[in-house]
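To close the chapter, one final illustration. This time we ask the reader to focus less on the individual chains and more on the assembly as a whole: which components sit near each other, and how the overall shape emerges from the parts.
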Amino acid sequence: MLVLQILIDGFAISALYALGATGFTLIFGVSGVLNLSHGAIMVLAAVAAWAAGSVLHASTYVGALIGVATALVAAIVTYFLIVQPIQRSSKIPHEEKEIFVLTGTLLWGIMIQELIAYFFTNNAKTVLPIVEGVVSIAGVRTPSNEIFTAVVCCLVILLLWGLVNRTRTGKVVLAASMNPRGVTLLGYELTSVYVVVWSIYGVLAGIAGVLLGMFLGVSSYSVGPLTASAFSIVVLGGLGSVSGSLIAAFVVGYLETLTAYLVSPAYRTIPALLLLVAVMYVRPQGLLGRR
Amino acid sequence: MDATGSRSAGVAARAVFGATAFGLSLGLASLPGPAVAADPIKIGVIAEAQAIAGASIPQAAQMAADEINAAGGVDGRKIEIVAYDDHSSSADAVRAFQRAVNEDKVNVVIASYISEVVLALEPWASRLKTPFITPGAASNEISLAVHRDYEKNKYTFHGYLTSAALALSVCDAAKELLVDGKKMKSAVIMSEDAAWTKPLDVGYEECLPKIGLQVLDHIRFSPDTTDFTPIFNKIEASKPDVIITGISHVGVQPTVQWKNQQVPIPMLGIASQATNSTFGKDTNDAADGVLYQGVSGPDAAVTPKSLPFAEGFKQKFGNFPSYAGYPAYDEVYYIADAIKRAGSTDADKLVDALEKTDWVGTIGRVQFYGKDEQFTHSIKYGKGLITGLMLQWQDGRQISVWPKEVAKGELKFPSFIKLTTN
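The assembled structure is written out below.
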C-alpha cells in the first residue's frame, strides 16, 4: 500500500520536475544560457492561469491556455530584453558574459517575483484543475488531476523529443547546440534559432507552471525554490543533456517522496541536495554530462 | 572611541536642534493667524503590505484614525498614521521601528502579525521606550517577556490572543461543535513549524484530551512545504475524527490538496489565511467546509462595532479585513482613549493608561492582564471579554458557527467528508 502510494505520488511529482527542467536544460544546451528567471516564469504562468479563472471567470481550458501564452511571451521578452543585449554588448568582455547573463536573469526573476507579490500578494494561488475527482488505483485514492499531470508531462516530453529529432527546425536546433558557427555557415540566422528555442522553452515552462498550479499551488515565494530545483536537477543530470535531466528529475522526485513518507515531510528536500553535492565530488559533469 | 562617540552625539544633537528650530520657524511662518493646531499624535504602523493578513493592518488603522479625526481628534489633536512595509522581514521591521521613533517621532507603534517579527521588535520598544502593540502575532513569548522583566519590557502590549488562549478558544469551540455535537473522539494535530505554534501545540496537547478528543498523532511540518500528500496520507492512516490545525504561513496549498485528494476528515483550528475574505477565491472554493478560529468575522456581530467596521472596510478597500485588521482598528481607538486619559503622549504615562484600558472594540471587550499575571499586557481571554469565534467556509462565504450567541449557521461539510457518528 505504502509502496504503491510512493510510486504513484513520486511519479507525478517527478514528471512535473522533468518537464520543468527540460526547457531549462534545452536553453543551456543550445545557447549556453543558464536562465535563473526560470522559477519566476513558471510562477507567472500559474498566476496568469489563476487570474484568468478567478478574476476574468475564464473556463479552466482557456485559463490554462492564457497561462501558457503568458509564459511564452515572458520567455521571448526575457531573451530580447535581458539575454540578447548582454550577449551582443561590446562593453562586457566575452569571458564574463555568462556571469552577466546569470546575474541579469536572476535579477529579472526577482523583478517578476516582486511584481507578482505587489499585484497579487504573496499568498499562494491554485489553478482550478482541468479534471476533478479521485480514482482508486489498487486501493490508493489518487486525484484524477495527479494522473492528468503525469500524462500531460510525459506527452509533452515525447512531443519535444519528436520535434527535436524528427523535424527540420528541431535538427537545426540540435545542430546549433553542437556547433553554432557551423549552423550560421549553412545560412541559418542564429538569432532566429534562439527565438525558436526560447519559444519552446516558454511553452514548456508555461505548461509546467500551470500544472504545478493545479497540482500543488504556487506563490511568489515559490520562485526561488523552483529555480533552485530545476538548477539542481539539470546539474545532477549533466548540463545541457536532456536525457540526463529526465533521469535526474525522477531520481530527485522519488528521493523527495521517499523521504517525505519514510522519514518526515520536513526533511523532504535534504537527501536530494546531499546527493547533488556527492555527485559534484565524484562526477562533476553530472550523470550524463559531456563536459 | 568615547571622544568620537560624544562628539558625533553633539553634532547630531545640534543638527536635531537646528532642524527643530528651522521646522518651528517654518511652521509658524506658514500658519494663518492665531489658530495654532496642536501637534498631531503620530502612530507608526509597521506591517506586511504584500501579505493579505498584513495589508489590512495599516488600512484598518488609517480608517480608525480618519474616524477619530472626523470627530474632532483627541483633545483637538489629530491622529496621523505613518505606515511602513516590513516585507515580512524582522530586519526590515527593526529598521522601520528605529526610523519611526528616531526620525518620524511617532508616539506609539502598531506592528505585524508575525510572531518572529514582533519578538524582534520587542527589545527595541524597550530600548527606545516606545509603547508598541501587535494586532496579530500570537506567540506566548511576547507577553511572557513582559512578565519576566516588567520594568524593561512594559512598553510592549499584546493586542491579540496568545497561542495559549488560541488553543483554549479552539478547544472550547471543538467541545461544543464536535464532541457534543458530532460525538467525535479523536484528533490529529497538524501544525507548521513556527514560533507561534510551539506554545499552541502545547496548549492543544493539554486541552484536547480534557474536552474528550484523544490525540492520535502530532505532525509538525516545515512552513515551506508545498506537497501535503504524504502528510494527509499519514494523518488518514491513524483514522482520527478531526484534524486540528495550526497554520498561518501556509493555508491555500494544504486546503486545496485536502479537497483535491478528498481527505475524508474535517479540519478545524487556527488557519490564518482562511480568515481572509479572498481565501475562497485563492483556493477556487476548496475552502468550503474548513473551520477556523477568528476574533471577528464579516457576518459576526461580536459587538455592535464589528459589522459596521467590516462593512465600512469593504466599502473602502474592496475586501473584508483580515483577522489582524479588527484588532488594529481597535488599537488605534484604545490608544487614543489612553492618550486622552493620560493627558499626554509621554511613554510611561501612556503605558500606565493603556494598562487600565477597558474598551469595547470590534473583537470584544479589551482589557490587559496585569503585572502579576502570567501573560502580562496580553488581552484577556474569557466570557464577557474576548472568546474568539469559530467560523466555517460555506459556499464561498465565511459563516460564524460558534459561539451560539453570534452564530449565523450550522456546520456544513462537502460531500467527501465522512463524519464519524458512532
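The interface with chain B takes residues 5, 9, 13, 53-54, 117-118, 121-129, 132-134, 141, 143, 145-146, 216-217, 219-222, 225, 257, 260-261, 264-266, 268 of chain A (CB under 8 Å). The radius of gyration of chain A is 19 Å. With these observations in hand, you are ready for the problems at the end of the chapter.
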